Amino acid sequence: MHNDDLILTQIYKNMVFTTDETTFINSKFENIVLKKGDVVLNAGEMVTHQYYIVDGCLRTYFIDLSGKEHTVQFAIKDWWISDYTAFFAQKNAILTIECIQNANLYKISKNSMDEIYSAFPKIETYFRKKMEKSFASFQHRILSNLAKPAKERYLDFITTYPHIEPLVKNYHIASYLGITTESLSRIRKEL
Amino acid sequence: MHNDDLILTQIYKNMVFTTDETTFINSKFENIVLKKGDVVLNAGEMVTHQYYIVDGCLRTYFIDLSGKEHTVQFAIKDWWISDYTAFFAQKNAILTIECIQNANLYKISKNSMDEIYSAFPKIETYFRKKMEKSFASFQHRILSNLAKPAKERYLDFITTYPHIEPLVKNYHIASYLGITTESLSRIRKEL
DNA sequence: CGTCTATTTGAATGTACTCAAAAGCGGTGG
DNA sequence: CCACCGCTTTTGAGTACATTCAAATAGACG
User: Fold this and answer.
1) CB–CB contact B72 A139 (8 Å)
2) Which of A64, A136, A141 is opposite residue B142, by nearest beta carbon?
3) How confident is the model at residue B115 (pLDDT cuts 50, 70, 90)?
């Protein structure tokens, strides 16, 4: 299989395109290889792209006024990642995107996405539905943060994302759960 | 102006439709009048509709295992409200939608939305963008909950939603901020 | 083995919580 | 007009949980 075909078969599963369409869409993607520790996007920079993860693990985080890091999202194989708030509005990032396990990505610009949307309404539908799922998982996380104590949130995390847990450090999980590393350590001791 | 025209001019501002299109879209909406205390949707029920608010104020809330209420969203004039997680997936609600100030709504079913989407891709784009904004505000709230102490979250709330604050009780705000009424009272005393 | 990073442990502190009770506010009916 | 009732907010005292800061262990890797 030709390398360019790989993008579409992975990203737009179950969709059928002509050769011309395939060529058009593939021309909008660019491959990137990252090493652990690499930063794809720094807070403050203009956000022009979103990233599809072929393999590896990344996270987005936010640094608050007191200097503390807060992990917003982890992302692994077959997930999309960006600072979406800034991406949608074409503004400067408040999040930093960092590679935490060697990764292989495809990036695509917002402009290219918009071109694809107008050329292929099916893809807009596909992304609207993805967005709806993200919306649902964000809402679930808000409820979880409001309603559950740290220990249960930790248990939820490791059961909901069993594939992510082994790829990330405990202090990443702590910053995702909104607690300190020390508190997470104490929670883990109780289990 | 004929009453039916009102729906479209309010909801789909800046979009132009023919008479037939207007008739088609308007036929999908149904008007509802609610009084303070009325419940539009109960947790556990199938979620088939979303609601556009012409006037009044509603909220969605979640009741956790210990019986505590957690307000997920407030909504006023010109906002949409539903249990979107359940609405998108056509599942049973985990949220309850309650009217907290006499309200006038238009409701529309998911099926009707899908029909409108396929007939008018512009409307799908419009809703995708709305979804993107909701996504952004949810993310903002997650960051805010993780990064800021209760006092700042309260100040953020009253400055971000000055039109909502006078319509809701303090205990609603507390349950939105994730703190108790007593804590909110103490925070307010300090200001 | 030594160094760097990550995790754990301890002790003191602080913030928000629970439970219980008092005060404030708004509307209704006598 | 005022007394009463229900609902909302406030106050107080004791408690629980997570935090901070500092230091000790445990792992990973050259």
Assistant:
1) yes
2) A141
3) very high
Q: What does the alpha-carbon distance between residue A158 and residue A119 come to, in Å, rounded to a whole number? A: 40
Q: Report d(CA A101, CA A86) in Å as an integer.
A: 24
Output the distance from A84 CA to D9 C1' rounded to whole Å: 40
Question: pLDDT tens digits for A56-70?
Answer: 999 999 998 888 999
Q: Give pLDDT, residue B1.
A: 42
3-state secondary structure of B100: strand
For position B140, what pLDDT does the model report? Answer: 87
Q: Show Cβ contacts of residue B101 under 8 Å, excluding neighbours closer than 6 positions.
A: B36, B56, B57, B167
Chain D nucleotides near the protein (CB, 7 A): 8-13, 17-22
- Burial grade of A150 (CB within 10 A; 0-12, 13-18, 19 or more): middle
For A128, the closest chain B residue by CA position comes to: B128
Q: Model pTM?
A: 0.87
Topology classification of domain B3-118: Jelly Rolls (2.60.120)
A131 and B CB contact within 8 Å: yes
pLDDT (tens digit, 9 = 90+) per residue, B75-98?
999 999 999 999 999 999 999 999
pLDDT at B168 over 90: yes
- Domain covering A3-147 in this structure, CATH number: 2.60.120.10
d(CA A8, CA B151): 48
> What's the pLDDT score for residue B132?
84
Segments making up each domain of chain B, as ranges: 3-118
